[in-house]
Amino acid sequence: MKLADLRKLSIRQNLKIRFQLSNGLECVITEHGVAQVPALGRVPDFNLEQELVSISEFVLDSAAQEQKRPVAPRRIGREELALMAAPAGSAAGSEHEEE
Q: Rounded to whole angstroms, what are the CA distances from 48 to 19, 62, 89?
């Protein structure tokens, strides 16, 4: 799973994807596919793509919150997020080819 996969997922599903970096900062991938580190006040001394390799837990927030019924953020593991981020036809397509 690459950062580009998460960016596409955030756009497709209108999500904000958050995760903790090894230095204690938080990265947010917005519903527009932009990766941000809000607390960063200088040029980073890390690479988000390399940091992503070690991340095991993510928090998903719906960007389209209804005011009457807000949706609570959802914590998910790396494997589940990787399945969500996989191209739409990759998992389903391989099953149908075998039939």
A: 11, 22, 27
d(C-alpha 14, C-alpha 63), whole Å: 6
Identify which of 50, 60, 54 has the alpha carbon closest to the alpha carbon of residue 30.
Answer: 60
Cα distance between residue 57 and residue 95, in whole Å = 28
Q: Where are the domains of the chain?
A: 3-98
What phi, psi does 46 have (nearest 5°)? -140, 165
- Write out 22-71 in H/E/C secondary structure: CCCCEEEECCCCCEECCCCCCCCCCCHHHHHCCCCEEEEEECCCCCCCCC
**pTM to 2 decimals?**
0.78
Residue 66: predicted pLDDT: 59
